[in-house]
Amino acid sequence: xxxxxxxxxxxxxxxxxxxxxxxxxxxxxxxxxxxxxxxxxxxxxxxxxxxxxxxxxxxxxxxxxxxxxxxxxxxxxxxxxxxxxxxxxxxxxxxxxxxxxxxxxxxxxxxxxxxxxxxxxxxxxxxxxxxxxxxxxxxxxxxxxxxxxxxxxxxxxxxxxxxxxxxxxxxxxxxxxxxxxxxxxxxxxxxxxxxxxxxxxxxxxxxxxxxxxxxxxxxxxxxxxxxxxxxxxxxxxxxxxxxxxxxxxxxxxxxxxxxxxxxxxxxxxxxxxxxxxxxxxxxxxxxxxxxxxxxxxxxxxxxxxxxxxxxxxxxxxxxxxxxxxxxxxxxxxxxxxxxxxxxxxxxxxxxxxxxxx
Length: 357
Description:
Layout: E1 7-10, E2 34-39, H1 47-57, E3 60-65, H2 69-78, E4 87-92, H3 96-101, E5 105-106, E6 130-142, H4 143-148, H5 157-160, E7 169-172, H6 178-205, E8 209-211, H7 214-221, H8 226-231, E9 237-241, H9 244-250, E10 261-278, H10 284-294, H11 297-307, E11 310-311, H12 320-325, H13 337-356
Parallel strand pairs: 2-3, 2-4, 7-8, 7-9
Antiparallel strand pairs: 4-10, 5-10, 6-9, 6-10, 6-11
Helix pairs in contact: 6-13
């Protein structure tokens, strides 16, 4: 989610990532024994799981990473006539209509789709995309900062505009970042078409800081992340994911008793990430095999610890650390894909004018 770019989506700390055994050149893109995955920077999977795919399918996996989810989707659209690969992973519900309206994918009903929760199948009629994971974009807070200052952390969107949280929040650019866009859509879901701009005027007046992408926001600006502490991050509030706290615990050099970061549950927005077979894929059969693999129980249960997102197939187990330190939001904001499609570009344009200028 993701991101998660967390992805894992985005949100892993020190995650194992694969770049097709280190290959990032274009040589061999037409090789029918190689399947090329194009993704955002947060793609990650365990070596043994990828090895199983390669052994069972007979294809070698090659991975090309193309920045934050928003940037990766935009580039995929621009190169759709001569795509970089066979499968694209990382388009989420906030950007789905952009990919579909631009004819990015060809239909394919992946094996195992019947095991995916119907709530995550947002293109059930067309089968142009396959749901792979879900997660929640939420404001995270640095517990130590709030304890030190005797201040209760914010819980809701409204809290973030309170003067007592002035100059504390960093978020991502809604025009270039998937979590940034998710946070914007969450505010629109909360305040409506006529109210979200007024809300962002309050946030701007309250000193919200905007950076290009999740990695910069979380690893450089946020005081609560392990990397943020090293980078001198001084913002104790960041737009990240509900699964970021368990990542902080799992990847800590010395495992803390409790997560050093928390989640403002009233700020969460549900994201669903998809993969699809690119329309002009050079190896469509390899791409189909990989989409099937993404819905396999082995990959779905490997995914949480690598990309810090939740599975979409029924009955898939998640690590105990997720349940303890980062359960999915109980009541995240959601928005119908049709409403996102109808409003997203105008909202992002208005947001850019309002917040960045």
